[in-house]
Give the backbone structure.
Amino acid sequence: MDKGTSDKTVDTLTQDEAASELMRLSAVLQAANLAYHTDDDPEIDDATYDRLKRRNIEIEARFPDLMREDSPSKMVGAAPAEGFSKVTHAVAMLSLSNAFDQEDVSEFDQRIRKYLGFDANTPLAYTAEPKIDGLSLSLRYEEGRLVQAATRGDGAVGENVTANALTIDDVPTQITGAPEVLEVRGEVYMSHADFEALNARQTAAGAKPFANPRNAAAGSLRQLDSKITKSRPLKFFAYAWGALSEPLADTQMAAIDRLKELGFSTNPLTELCDGPNDLLSHYAKIEERRATLGYDIDGVVYKVNDLALQNRLGFRSTTPRWAIAHKFAAELAWTWLEGIDIQVGRTGALSPVARLKPVTVGGVVVSNATLHNEDYIKGFDSKGGQIRQGKDIRVGDFVQVYRAGDVIPKVADVDLSRRPSDSQEFVFPDTCPECGSDALREPGDAVRRCTGGLICPAQAVEKLKHFVARGAFDIDGLGAKQVEQFYADGWIAEPADIFTLRDRFGSGMQQLKNREGWGDKSATKLFDAIDDKRRIPLDRLLFALGIRHVGDAASSLIALHYGTWDALIKAMDDAVDQTGAAWDDLIGVDGVGAVMAGSLISAFAQPRERASITRLVDALEVQPVKRADTSGSPVAGKTVVFTGTLEKMTRAEAKARAERMGAKVAGSVSAKTDILVAGPGAGSKAKKAAALGVDILDEDGWLDMIAGA
């Protein structure tokens, strides 16, 4: 089978192909998050999801300027469902990066050694434990008493399921000998035998049976009626911790043993391993026993055993550096393609989606698959090369759905011998199905986009949904459903309209209170929640604007660099021609490239969009970036550039330490650079710094400067 864009290795993608692939991955992973974490009805399995997410991260690493504002690399889980009160995790519940073969495991070990400065002979122990396919749960104990249980949610905010957790036999309500504050984390699951018995009872009662044990466990834990949860046979394995008033132990393995001593169920297959070969050997043993365990697992988790090293390694935005999940493989299936729908995204991209006759693939029922773009449907990649031996995809085809590796459920092949005699080629629309505007495909772009802009309801609604989403304004009581309804009613058309709702409906609030589910109290509560968000940090405002390529992480970097809204606006105006000092300063921000910078400037340069942003900001109090207390730091407020080879710490450690001390780390030398730290091999940056009169330090000089800070 010839390769399509989504099958190509990351190092062979062109920039256009990479942009198209990132768009596809974003749509697929956002839908998967909602299906898995919020609806307890996954459309893709964990192995496929995590491989897609890894592919997204690898593409972003190669093409940092193409990072999307809705990048899946910044997502963890999904927002808590309605019906439960929210719990803010004291320590974020992050996801794990993944490995899929021996090479990935070796690279994991090598990355850690490189970060720590360890050579191949330095001893480095890991733990290896089965990855339970269930629902993550956090249990908070204070003075030995269970006071709160919460789901992971989106990693920062979860659902309060304390009443339900109290019904699980494996969850102790009282423990002795524990730290004063102990947050135990683990997985709620259901055994195969209990699952079969539950489904038998469901069928006998005329109720819908569950698709698999994971769905049954998640659905049972997230019942609003704890009596239903109590009737379900749930189990719990403890494997980690969050907030602690004092350490459990010095190592991962000893901490797990401590949890077992405190009365928690821990997995007996957890072992201490000495390096990648031992990890792979234990992986093989667990995989061999997988079918006989009596509960579902989807891989093996490896963690650095030394907790001091874990602390030193730290975290990326959504994953720890010191842990990885080695996943099992997925499968193929054949089914009928019943239709092709065209969806319009927030950026106006027209994305084709295959509607399939539901089929089970790897334990998950699949009913749709992304078809990427019009070339993919025709059987060609963006360069005109054949995929699927040039077979096109038509409604009514018998198709093979592929759910393994680094691809979303997709049409991998077509059985032409079963194609209906009256089938017709699919004609991709050249007008937007939402607003009727022309849908154009620019030269070099694999995606056709609606030109309707603000008049296109799909784009307007999606921009408003993004605006109120978590990480942006996150207005309590104003979620995606409310945004859709208020937009349909003509109450809001742009973000600024949200902040005039009280004025427009304060005296005529009957329009809102008379709607189903609303009353005087709920309407007033919503208006109060909106007013609470008039004070907004600069980085969150910037992210909420939904500017293409400017995601959560980039918004933080840009906000930290400029500090205030006025300074940001002035810089954007000064850099509008994408030349001069203001432009150089913008693209000199570490992590900001020309594509992202151009998109940012364009957003503020478009008259209609600028006017909309101005109306919004006039209704807000934009707070300057809150900076860490760096009093006494010799580099606070200074711009630092690292170049060459560092010998006493890795580049990542040096950058992280400089930022903690209040420095700005830039990727290039400019007139605003204060310090250049130059290791062996420093080249053009050192020459430019010397010409500009920038202070140049070697690594020892840098370490002397920051010593004791």
Q: What stands out?
A: The two ends are 58 Å apart (CA to CA).
